[in-house]
Design a protein that fits this description.
Layout (H helix, E strand, L loop, with lengths): L21 E2 L5 E2 L3 E7 L7 E7 L2
Antiparallel strand pairs: 1-2, 3-4
Amino acid sequence: MFLRLGEEIKVRFTIDEPMLRFHTQDMSFESEPGEFMAYVGPNSEELLEEKFSLLP
C-alpha cells in the first residue's frame, strides 16, 4: 500500500490455513493448530498487533 502523507485507509485481508504451512522436521509441508500473532506498522517499534487462532 502506498499512501500520501497524512492519508489513512482501512485494510482488511484474510489469512487462511495454507498461508500458515511450513516444512516440518520430516520435510512435510503442513500447518499446526495454535495461536498466532500478526503485526503491522510503519517500522519495528510502532506496531499494531492482533492475535488469531488456527483450529484443528
